[in-house]
From TrEMBL, chain A:
Residues the entry annotates as binding [2Fe-2S] cluster: C91, C96, C132, C136
Name recorded for this polypeptide: NADH-quinone oxidoreductase subunit E
InterPro entries from the UniProt entry: NuoE-like, NuoE_dom, NuoE_N, Thioredoxin-like_sf
Source organism of this protein record: Pseudomonas flexibilis
Cofactor note: Binds 1 [2Fe-2S] cluster.
UniProtKB/TrEMBL annotation, chain B:
Swiss-Prot/TrEMBL catalytic activity: a quinone + NADH + 5 H(+)(in) = a quinol + NAD(+) + 4 H(+)(out)
Name of the molecule in the record: NADH-quinone oxidoreductase subunit F
InterPro entries for this protein: NADH-UbQ_OxRdtase_51kDa_CS, NADH-UbQ_OxRdtase_suF, Nuo51_FMN-bd, Nuo51_FMN-bd_sf, Nuop51_4Fe4S-bd, Nuop51_4Fe4S-bd_sf
Coiled-coil annotated spans: none
Keywords (A to Z) from UniProt: 4Fe-4S, Flavoprotein, FMN, Iron, Iron-sulfur, Metal-binding, NAD, Quinone, Translocase
Organism this protein belongs to: Pseudomonas flexibilis
Pfam families hit by this protein: Complex1_51K (PF01512), NADH_4Fe-4S (PF10589)
Cofactor needs: FMN; [4Fe-4S] cluster
Lineage: Bacteria, Pseudomonadati, Pseudomonadota, Gammaproteobacteria, Pseudomonadales
Amino acid sequence: MSLTLIQTDRFTLSEAERQAIEQEKQHFEDPRAVSIEALKIVQQQRGWVPDGACEAIGALLGIPASDVEGVATFYSQIFRVPVGRHILRVCDSMTCFIAGHETLLVRLRDQLGIEPGQTSADGRFTLLPVCCLGNCDKAPTLMIDDDTYGNVSADALARLLEAYP
Amino acid sequence: MKLASLGPANRVPRAEDTHPLTWRLREDGEPVWLDEYRRTNGYQALRKALDELTPAATVQAVKDSGLKGRGGAGFPTGVKWSLMPADDTRNIRYLLCNADEMEPNTWKDRLLMEQLPHLLVEGMLISAHALRAGRGYIFLRGEYVDAARILNRALAEARDAGLLGRNILGSGFDFELFVHTGAGRYICGEETALINSLEGRRANPRAKPPFPASVGAWGRPTCVNNVETLCNVPAIILHGVDWYRSLARSGSDDMGTKLMGFSGRVRTPGLWELPFGISARELLETHAGGMRDGHKLKCWQPGGAGTGFLLPEHLDAAMHAGGIAAVGTRMGTGLALAVDASVSMVSLLRNMEEFFARESCGWCTPCRDGLPWSVKILRALEQGQGTPEDLQVLGELVEFLGPGKTFCAHAPGAVEPLGSALKYFRDEFEAGIAPSARARVGLAQT
C-alpha cells in the first residue's frame, strides 16, 4: 500500500479520463461543476482517487487543487484510499435496523474479518455504511457493487458473496 | 435482475382517473418506455401546455390545484413557482429535480424513476415551460444505478423524438435536460446544499434569503422540485384542477394522491398510490395487512426519519399535513414505519442519531457537535451505563437543535423523533441509567 501512495506523486490523467472530463464540462455553464464527476471518472478507472488526481483535476478545471480535495473528502462515495475489488454497502437505516441489519454486520465480521469502513485482508471486499438504499419494503437490503439485494438473511448473504470473487 | 422497485404498487387495481401517478405501471415491473408511454396518453399534457397554455396559466393551474411538495416539507408548489422572477431579462433559469432520495424509510421516487421515467421527463418539460427554464438537471443519488441507466435511456428517446432540445414539438420552446449523479451524503437533499453540490462544491446548505428562485444555481433563478411533485404536473394539466382537487378524501388539506407506504414487521410491506386523507389505520391494516403474526405495534412514524413517533392510539389520524399535525408531528414523505414491541427505543434512536450525526455536513456547531453528543449518551444508555443527567442533556439537545436554532432542517429533523421517543417512552431511557447512579439519586433499581 505504501508503494501505491508514493506513486501518486507522479499522477497523470489518462487520455480517456481527460476526454470523459472534457465531455462532462459541456453539460454545465461552469467547469467547477464537473469536479465530483471527474473524481468519479478517475475512481472508475483506478478504484480510488490518489492525491495527485486532485491536482490534475484542478488544473484541468481551472480551480485550486485544495477545492477538489475539499470535495473529494466531503462525499462518502469518493474513496481516498485503495479499496477492495468489490464494494459492499449494507444499508443501516432504521428500517433495516428493525429488520436486523446488525446481524448481517456480525456475519460479515465473522466471515471476512471486517467492520464498516474496512477492507478484507485478501483485498476482495470493502464494507461501507450507506444511507437508506430506498428498498425499505424489502429490508434488510444491501448493494454489492451495482447490484441491489433485498430481504437478505445472514445465511443468504454468505451465498451472495460467492458470486463476487 | 428485477428492478428493486417492483412491488405491491404494480399489482393493485389502478385507473387513470384515480391513480394519476401509477396507472401505467406494468405488472412485470419493467420500465414504461416512450412508445408505450405515448400509447397511454403520454406527452398529451405537454402538447396541451405548449399549444394552449401560457407559462403563467400553467403556474396558476398548479397553484389552484393545491399541489404541495412531496419531498417531505410540503411547501405549496405553485407558490414556489411564482417566486421565480417575472423579469424576462433574467433569461437563464434552471429547473432542478431533487432525486436525491436518501431519507431513511423512503422508497417512492425510486419507483417513479425506474418504472415511469417519461412521466418525470414530461413533468419537467411542462414545469420548465411554465418557469421559462431552458435547462434542467435531475440530481440523482449515486446508488440509484438502475434509475440512472433508465433515465438516460428515456432522455435519449425523448431527444430522438423531438421532445427535448430545440423547438420542442414545433412550439419554439427549448429545453435541455441532464442526469447528474451524486457521490453520497444525505445533506445533498437539502435544496441549497443540492445546488452547491451541483456546482461542484461541498454540499453545505446556503443561507436563505436569497432564495434559489432569485439566486440559485450559478446565481441564476432556480426552482428545485422533488420527483413525485413533478410527476403530478402532467395529470393536473391534462385533466384539470377540478378533477385533481376531487381526488383527496374530504377534510384533507393536501390535494391529489400520494405514494404512501408502510414498512417494518407488517404483513405486506409496500407502497401504494392513495388519496390524501385516508387514515393511517387504513394504510396499515387494509393495505399493509396489519402487523405480522406474533408482533404487536408499539409506535409508528408517519413519514421518514425526521418525523416524530406516534402511538397506536394515533392510527386514526388522517394522512395529510393537518391530520398528522393534529397529533403532534409532520406527515413528511408519507411512507410510514411500524415499530413493533420487540424493538428497544433506546437502540432504535441510537441507530437513527448515528445516521444523523454521520450525515451532518459540519457547517454549524449545534448540529456538528450536538448530534455526536446524543449518540454518545444513547450508546451509554443502551449499555446500561447512563446517568440521570444524560436524560436531562438529551432533553436539552432536543431543545437546542430544534427548529430555528440551526442553519438548515437537518438537526431539527434529527431531534424530532428523539423528542417524541423521550415523551412517550421515557421509562425505556430511564432504564439505561447505571445501577450505581440510580442509587446515588435514589431511583429504584430495575
